[in-house]
UniProtKB/TrEMBL annotation:
Pfam family name, one: Aldedh
Keyword match Hydrolase: no
Name listed for the protein in its UniProt record: methylmalonate-semialdehyde dehydrogenase (CoA acylating)
Species: Acinetobacter dispersus
Secretion signal span: none
Top-level taxon of the source organism: Bacteria
Ranges of residues in domain Aldehyde dehydrogenase: 20-484
GO biological process, one term: thymine catabolic process
Enzyme class: oxidoreductase
């Protein structure tokens, strides 16, 4: 509890070489509660010199950290997961205040990140190399999975707990050092997790934090000492990060925008399906990269639309900390304006507005950035509400006659983050999972985010880079494979002849 009380929530600090310090920058941004418009803190946009100091600290710490026994690194993660669990409710309260999501969803945000920290505790088996004895006479070959050096992470506003916990625990437990740049819109809960990481025993310089915008991002992408960058956020920024960092020789994993579909077959369990669709489309006010954006109703399932709308009407819009809230505010006034503009475009382009969340009023929170559940039918693929990621509580419905039409429609969309199918037919499910060209598939699950034993495998326009966050793939991302071929002679006085061929005989 003392850890939480010691964090000055009114000012986000930098973490450089083990010390929480106040930035000397002249550029600050307010942290605003999206339900009340209350300014609850300030975040600095770090100077280039401060970013360089953080990177230098990480570079200096790498020499000793990489030599730290793997069991010692794992023990720190064991302490960290215990501290996160003990402080979850306090962190969730701050997360809700700065981000807007409900308290229950804030705890879910932390819990999903915590699962990755727990998985980091098993890095001893994840980071094992390979060994083959006797690849030639007296010759053995084996591999080492060695850390890269200084890695960086750039995280979005919508999951200020989960996404940072996707990144720095796995990078650090693999023997790297790390520089984290949280979202400037809601960094306070992230900093609470960082403070717990320091309390868990992460040494000075191994984890550093800088705040800021494009200038800070660009410095991380171009600094010579940064070896790898992990990014989660918008397609525009993710593409910029991938291209700029790639040009400067860094490894990059960039998880970006999405337009997630769910295909609904008429044989599906109607009640379970409708409940799942409503939760996935409108939970977190639609501010999830895995949110359900498009429901593709196949055949007679189109007759369920009216019931879907009625379920959505029962959702309560309110401040995230209020009891029984289903939909909290979107992150900012700018975000709300963009969502409303896209809803208006749907009306203008001829979609049928079945449920309108534009004029929702929340008593006591009249200044909040609220948008209610919104549902369109009669949507076509040339409409903005279909083509663009809305990142708000808006569901577009398209009706088709067959599964084949549904698969073709979904595969034609440029994004590939996630897709769902609702059916009671194993044969249909198997056909769908084989033919669909999307990286993550849910069968009777609308948000198919995998558990940490597996990797996050978004694809196509939703991802740049070969290796995804957490799981086995992220260990490959955060390590370099070194292959060693060795020969030891049984008799040190053995005499041989010169061999000028490439053979290992």
């Amino acid at each position: 509890m003392n850890t939480i009380q010691n964090i000055q929530l009114e000012t986000a600090k930098l973490l450089i070489n083990g010390s929480f310090i106040e930035s000397e920058t002249q550029q600050w941004q307010d942290i605003i509660n999206p339900a009340t418009q209350e300014v609850i803190g300030r975040v600095p946009f770090a100077t280039v010199q401060e970013v360089d100091a953080a990177i230098q600290s990480a570079q200096a710490a790498f020499a000793s950290w990489r030599q730290t026994p793997i069991q010692a690194r794992m023990r720190i993660m064991l302490k960290l997961q215990n501290l996160i669990r003990a402080n979850m409710k306090e962190i969730a309260q701050v997360l809700t205040a700065e981000q807007g999501k409900t308290l229950a969803d804030a705890e879910g945000d932390i819990q999903r990140g915590l699962e990755v920290v727990e998985h980091a505790c098993s890095v001893g088996t994840l980071q094992m190399g390979e060994y083959v004895e006797g690849v030639a006479r007296g010759v053995d070959t084996y591999t080492l999975q060695q850390p890269l050096g200084v890695c960086a992470g750039i995280t979005p506003f919508n999951f200020p707990a989960m996404i940072p916990l996707w990144m720095f625990p796995m990078a650090i437990v693999c023997g790297n050092t790390f520089v984290l740049k949280p979202s400037e819109q809601d960094p306070l809960s992230t900093m609470m997790l960082v403070e717990l990481a320091i309390q868990a025993g992460i040494p000075a310089g191994v984890l550093n934090v800088v705040h800021g915008g494009k200038e800070v991002v660009d410095r991380l992408c171009t600094h010579a000492d940064i070896k790898a960058i992990s990014f989660v956020g918008s397609t525009a920024v993710g593409t910029h990060v991938y291209n700029l960092a790639g040009q400067h020789g860094k490894r990059v994993q960039s998880m970006m925008g999405a337009k997630n579909h769910v295909a609904v077959m008429p044989d599906a369990n109607k009640e379970q399906t409708l409940n799942a669709l409503v939760g996935a489309a409108f939970g977190a006010a639609g501010q999830r990269c895995m949110a359900l954006s498009v429901a593709v109703m196949v055949g007679d399932s189109k007759h369920w639309i009216a019931e879907l709308v009625e379920k959505a009407k029962t959702l309560t819009v309110n401040a995230g900390h209020e009891p029984n809230t289903d939909i909290g505010p979107v992150i900012s006034k700018r975000a709300k304006a963009r969502v409303l503009d896209l809803i208006n475009s749907g009306v203008e382009q001829g979609a049928e507005l079945l449920l309108d969340g534009r004029d929702v009023q929340v008593h006591g929170y009249e200044s909040g950035n609220f948008v209610g559940a919104t549902i369109f039918s009669g949507v076509s693929t040339d409409m903005r509400i279909y083509k663009e990621e809305i990142f708000g509580p808006v569901l577009a419905i398209i009706c088709v006659d067959t599964l084949e039409e549904a698969i073709a429609l979904i595969n034609a969309n440029p994004f590939g983050n996630g897709v769902g199918l609702f059916t009671q037919s194993g044969a249909i499910a198997r056909t769908f999972q084989n033919l669909i060209d999307i990286g993550q598939v849910g069968i009777n699950i609308p948000i198919p985010v995998p558990v940490p034993f597996f990797s996050f495998t978004g694809s196509r326009g939703s991802k740049l880079g070969d290796l995804g966050p957490y799981g086995k793939q992220v260990v490959q991302f955060y390590t370099q494979t070194k292959t060693i071929t060795s020969r030891w002679f049984e008799d040190s006085h053995e005499v041989g002849s010169v061999n000028t061929t490439i053979s290992l005989r």
